Structure formats: structure tokens, C-alpha cells
Amino acid sequence: MTESFTPASVLVTGGAGFIGSNFIHHFLQTNPACRVINLDLLTYAGNLENLKGVEGDPRYEFVRGDICDSKLVAAILFREKIDAVIHFAAESHVDRSITGPEIFVRTNVLGTQVFLQVSTDEVYGSLGASGLFTETTPLAANSPYSASKAGADLLVRAYQETYGFPTLNTRCSNNYGPYQFPEKLIPLMIHNIIAEKPLPVYGDGLNVRDWLHVKDHSRAVEAVLKNGVPGGVYNVGGNNEWRNIDIVNLVCDMLDSKLGRSSGSNRALITFVKDRPGHDRRYAIDASKMRNDLGWEPFYTFERGIEETISWYLDNQEWVREVTSGAYRDYYEKMYGGR
Ligand code: TYD
Hints:
This protein is an alpha/beta fold. The chain has a domain at 9-177 and 212-240 and 279-300 and 328-336: Rossmann fold (3-Layer(aba) Sandwich). 40% of the residues lie in helices and 16% in strands. It is built from twelve helices and twelve strands. The protein has a seven-stranded parallel β-sheet, with helices on both faces. The termini are far apart. Thymidine-5'-diphosphate is lined by residues 94, 174, 184-185, 188, 200-202, 207, 209, 244, 276.
């Protein structure tokens, strides 16, 4: 293999969000000589609490700002002599994109004129019962969220082709782990079980997602940054398909025992609700390019990852209270009538 790219200074956008903050923790540990500048607007899903452990690190700096502010971004690139930009900043929640697509277009498309673009398998649309998404599967996004990510991926491709700008594009399956905002399936279920609230399962609960621990995703992004071929697309996935209802049952059962509740009592909270409009049936990733070209594969088994994640949420109830106050509460009450 040719020599790896070793940046001295990187800009991480959206570093206060779920995947971005996990990446910063990981990257500072594995790259002792690199500076990390975190540009984040601190919208509802971004929280500096996620970065408590690195705040005092002299190699780390936080800048509050908007990725659409090109003057600000240019100033940071010059001032900090940035070698690479790792772009996590995005609006990410499909249900929000259905009720309010505009902000997704602004942030995810206009905000993306960059670099190592961290994207999603959702750009490929939905699969039937068999088959996997590869890097050459045509883009067929079905939600305003995934269409905005596909638009950004195409801009990234255009920058490479038009300006010869070196870009990399990762497309990852569903992530889970610490610091995930509790509007997403796994942390929402954990949160509602603790509070003994109904567990809303969309439609028949048989939609399939391919789950990957966020730390394995961070390792994948680092591998692509260091050894990816510019212009390349890299699918990242856990080879770990689960039906939604099976995940919800698993989380219920694990929390029965952790919370000392009688067996089956959490499952009684499951409530089947109206399906999400345009709900993609199945996502599954073929990550063989990551494995063959970059030697990456996931470390976490799902059993260990989900167990650790549940424990993390139980141990970090203060964090949950903080992020679910205010604006999030208003949104949730509007969606679910305050349940
Ligand atoms: P989500 O975590 O929103 O991720 P994505 O839509 O990007 O895959 O949802 C994961 C799956 O769980 C998806 O099929 C929708 C379903 N889901 C529910 O059934 N209930 C819920 O409350 C949420 C948030 C999601």
C-alpha cells in the first residue's frame, strides 16, 4: 500500500452531533500530532456536552458557526492551515425531513461544497427481500432527507470532476451508540422504556436496517481519509440486518433485566403506529470494498454494542434530560401529542 495521508490539522463539521463527536474522540486518540477544529452551529441535535472529555485538549478547538457561511469557512481553512475537511454536519432525521424539507436542502446540499463527505446508504433507496447496495448502485433517494444527501454526494462528485478537487465519499448504514439524539429508533426506545412511555413502532415493524456501532464508523472514516483513493465512494456497513420489531423486543428484554422489571413488561409498551410516508423497506450494505481495499471491518458485535449503549444511556440520564428539554420537547409533543 502507498503511504497513508497524515494530516496535521483537520476541520470537522458537525462535530457536536452524534457521529461527529464520536469521531473527534476517536481521532484525537489515534492521531496524537493532529489538531482538530470543530465547526458546529449547535442546532437541536448538537451538544457540547458530547465533547466534555476533550475540551481541555490543546489540540482541539470549537468554533460555533454555520457551514453555509462561506467567509467563515474560508477564514478557518486559511487560519488553521486545514489539510482535510471531514463533513458530518447535516440534518439527519427522516421524519423531520417529511414535515419540513427546506432546512435539509439548505444545510445538506448548499452546506456541502466539500471534501470527505460522510453520507448514508439511504441515497440508494430501498431494497426488496434480497440484495445489497454496492458503490455502483444507482442513487434512488425516497425521502427529502435522503434526496438532500444524494444531492450533496453529486456535488462532491462534481467538484472532483470539474475542479480536480480531491474528494472522498462514504455511505454508511444506520449507526447506534453513545450521544445519539433520542429521536432515532434505538435511543428513543431506551428513553421511552425508562420513562414507561409507549414505544411507537411504524407500520408492521418489519422494515430492515443494517446497524453499525458509531465507533466502527469512526474507524472507517479515518481509514478512508488516510488511505482512500480521491474521487472514491466507500460503502460502510455492519453486515448486521435487523427488523425494527426485533430490535425493539431486544431492547425491551435487556431493559427488563437491567431495570429489574418482570419479564415482558417492557414489550407491553410497544404500540404500532401509522407508517412513515414513503418508508423504505430494507437497507443493507455490501462493505467488501472497505474490507478488501482498506482492511477495515467492524470490531463490535451487535450484542456487545447494544448492551454497552443501553448501559451508557442508563448512566447518562442527565445528558438525556439536557438534550430533550426545550426545542426537542416541543417537536416531540407536536409529533406524538405529548405521549
Ligand atoms: P431511524 O432511527 O429514524 O433511522 P432511518 O429512518 O434513517 O433508518 O429509524 C430506523 C427505523 O425505525 C426506520 O425503519 C423507522 C423505524 N422507527 C420506528 O418504527 N419508530 C420510531 O419511533 C422511529 C424513530 C423509527
